[in-house]
Each structure stands twice: as structure tokens, then as C-alpha cells.
Structure prediction request, 232 residues.
Amino acid sequence: MRQDGRDGALGPGDFTLVDSTRPYLFRFEERFRSIVLQIPRGMLTSRSAAAERITAVPFRAKGSAGAFLSPVLRALADEGRDLDEGLAHSVTANALDLLATICGAHANNADAAVPAVHRRDLRRAREYLNERLHDPGLTLLAVGHALGFSLCYLHQLCHEAGTTPRSWLYDQRLDRARTMLLRRSDHDSPTIADIALRVGFKDPSHFSRAFKARFGTSPANCRTTSGSRRRP
Prediction:
């Protein structure tokens, strides 16, 4: 498996994460059987933002934390269709929580290899971007100028974290919008168009398409589903 400049050799029972929206490569030397689980990005990144930094990193089925999750994932693929809806939802949520925990542990190990000054500068860049998610005119050139970073260095920092400045900013905007939509809905709640503007989207239609691509559901349906869950 190859993605984001990383190569990982997988053995029986091992698994890895792949961002299917970006280029990746599988190479096989012989016949094989694989299980592919598709997870909406927000369902995992809301539990562990580190997941996006460890694509193509092998999770071993033996001798590591992956040993706890590998049999669960196989069981979900083999037996999941026979579970009733409530139990399936609970099992899936627990599996995602465990996966997020393992992702965090892997990312911490990877972060230890990044120079401390780079971690500090990346944190500064993210804080600066987070404070300006609402600005649709925000440019990477302006960010670099404000922080005293070259555009090349800004890209280098994000590359070491497994992303790009633009992708990270885009995902943070959508994550913040989802958080706003999941809050209790009442007559004072902002409209979906208002939320789009507050997170830096000038076009509500573009926002709706981007939101559905990331989370697998529309903003309106996200708000409706959230409201129905909260009703007694």
C-alpha cells in the first residue's frame, strides 16, 4: 500500500487507512482476499483528527494494538448484515472508538519523529487558520506572510502531518459546520445558508455538495436527524 509518500507492507489480518479521495496504490504479488470498510470521513475524524495523518501505516494483527480491532473488523464484514439495526449501530460505534484510539497511538509515535520546531510552527499555523475559518478570502500566501513562513515551508509542515494547508482548512470548515448543525435546533438557530457563510463558504450550494461529499449526508438531513435524536 502506498499513499502520502508512505509505503506499508500488509500481512494476513493487518489493516490500514486509505483516503479514497486522493491518489493511492495497491500492489499485489499473488492472489488475495481483502475486506474494504468505507467510513465517512467525519465519523472517524470527529473521534480522532490523527487518522488523516497516518494513511498507509500498517496496523498489525499481531503484537500491537491492532490485534484488538482486526477480528472485530472481520466479524463486522462477515456477520454484520445479520445484526439488528440497534445492535449494529452500537457495535459500529464501539469499533470506531477503538480505531480512533489506535490511530491516536500511531500518530503520537509518528509525531515523535518530527522536529519540535516543526510541531510548534504547525500548531501556530493551525491556530491561525482556525481563527479565520469564516473568511472566504483567506489565502495561503496571506497566512504565510502573517506567520513569517514561506509558502513552501507551510506546505512542508502540513506534508509532515499527512495533509496540505488547503485540505486541512477545507476539512476544518466542514467539521465546524457539522458541529453547528448538531447543536439543538430551535427558532434562534442559524439557517444552513448562515452556517455556510460563518465557515467561509460564499455559495450555499457549494457548501451543501462539499458537506455531503465529506459526511455522506446533506446539511439539512444532518440537522433533521440530530433533532429527531434529541426528542424524548
Notes: DSSP finds ten helices and two strands in the chain.
